Amino acid sequence: MRDYILRVLGISFFTALCHFFLPDGKVRRFAAPVLGLAVTASILLPAVSLFREETAADVFLPAVENVLDTGIYARSVEEEYKKRIAAEIARQGDVTAEITLGDDFSIEGITLSGDVSPAVMLYITTELEVPRSHVEIR
Fold first, then answer.
1. What is the domain range of residue 93?
2. 65 and 85 assigned to the same domain
3. Cα(58)–Cα(3) distance, rounded to whole angstroms?
4. What is the pLDDT along the chain (138 residues), one digit of tens a residue?
5. Are 104 and 23 in contact (CB under 8 A)?
6. Domain count, the chain
7. Which of 7, 9, 10, 59 has its CA 20 to 30 A from that of 18?
């Protein structure tokens, strides 16, 4: 029971730290459900072991380690974030966007192709807060 409580507290503390260090906005919105899932899984692990011969930790923890080791989650969050930003830009006009993100998921650059209207540029510079100097038009 002591190990169970320490595991739940440890995961909860880690989740709180992640929430503290994540930048506000869209990145936090993507990461919050995954962090909540980790806390929920740590609480429910013992219940799963009641119905299986192998413990839930034997099933769940290798999968978590695999995701953390390969960075699959981080890359998928980054790609999804880029897709959503590009889709929002595309809604502003007949344009496609290629997004470059920094390590902290801030937008470092946008490459646009297509019919780049003033409305698209206004959206990028005001809503996304990307300086005009970081926008390239092909």
1. 80-137
2. no
3. 15
4. 677 778 778 888 888 887 777 777 777 777 778 778 878 877 777 666 656 555 555 555 666 665 555 555 667 778 888 888 999 899 888 899 999 988 777 889 999 998 888 989 998 998 888 999 999 998
5. yes
6. 2
7. 59
Binning the chain into helix, strand and coil, the percentages to the nearest 5 are 65, 15, 20
Position 16 in a domain: yes
Pick the last residue of a domain from 15, 40, 70. Answer: 70
The DSSP code sequence of 68-98 is HHHTHHHHHHHHHHHHHHHHHHHHHSSEEEE
Q: Which amino acid is at 85?
A: I
Q: Residue 126: what are its φ and ψ, rounded to 5°?
A: -95, -55
